[in-house]
Amino acid sequence: MKAEHINPFLKGIASVFSPLCNAEPNIGRISLLNTPYTIGNTAVIIGITGKIKGQVTLEFKDNSAMKAASTLLGGYETSALDELTKSAVGELANMILGNAATEFSIINVIIDITPPTVIVGERIEITHRTPTLFIPIDIEHIGAMGLHVSVIEAA
């Protein structure tokens, strides 16, 4: 994966969370994950096709999914991973990837994204056929999340 393929994802994260939370997301040290890897209890997977292809997974740690959903819903209190909460976190991931797609188009890398798939469970194991970069994210008032980027250049 090329370095210039990471920046659109970082910009997508900032362009969604900065205005939504009125706080800059803190991006941790990006690392390469071995597959399979295990994530927490809530994740959103979005596929990517075009000049690059693969999948991006937005992982919510602890109760950050409910806090993110509440923020997206204008402060509506969410206390469980119900259908409204799952819909909101799916839309949040869709917004991040939509903004990343716009950033990719600026560098002439045209991509399409699939509708989000929300997964809820305990210790979800994910396997990719491509290398996975992990981008840790921490946002004040929401908590810890992570973006797992598993993409390659299309042939």
User: From the alpha-carbon coordinates, what is the Rg to the nearest angstrom?
Assistant: 15 Å
Assembly type of the chains comes to single chain
Assigned CATH architecture: 3-Layer(aba) Sandwich
Largest sheet, if any? Answer: 8 strands, antiparallel
Count the beta strands.
10
DSSP strand (E) fraction?
35-45%
Total individual domains: 1
The unreliable regions are none
In CATH, what is the homologous superfamily?
CheC-like
Q: Residue share in helices?
A: 25-40%
Bulk shape:
globular
Please trace the helix and strand order, writing H or E for each element.
HEEEEEHHEEEEE
Q: Give the termini separation.
A: 13 Å
Secondary-structure class: alpha+beta
Number of helices: 3
Helix-strand blueprint:
Layout: H1 7-21, E1 26-27, E2 31-33, E3 37-39, E4 42-50, E5 52-60, H2 64-72, H3 83-106, E6 111-113, E7 117-120, E8 124-126, E9 132-139, E10 143-153
Antiparallel strand pairs: 1-9, 2-9, 3-8, 4-5, 4-6, 4-7, 5-10, 9-10
Helix pairs in contact: 1-3, 2-3
Keywords:
155 residues; alpha+beta; Chemotaxis protein chec; 10 strands; 35% strand
Can you give me a brief rundown of this structure?
The chain is α+β, with helices and mostly antiparallel strands. It has helices spanning 7-21, 64-72, 83-106; strands at 26-27, 31-33, 37-39, 42-50, 52-60, 111-113, 117-120, 124-126, 132-139, 143-153. Strand 4 (42-50) and strand 5 (52-60) form a beta hairpin.
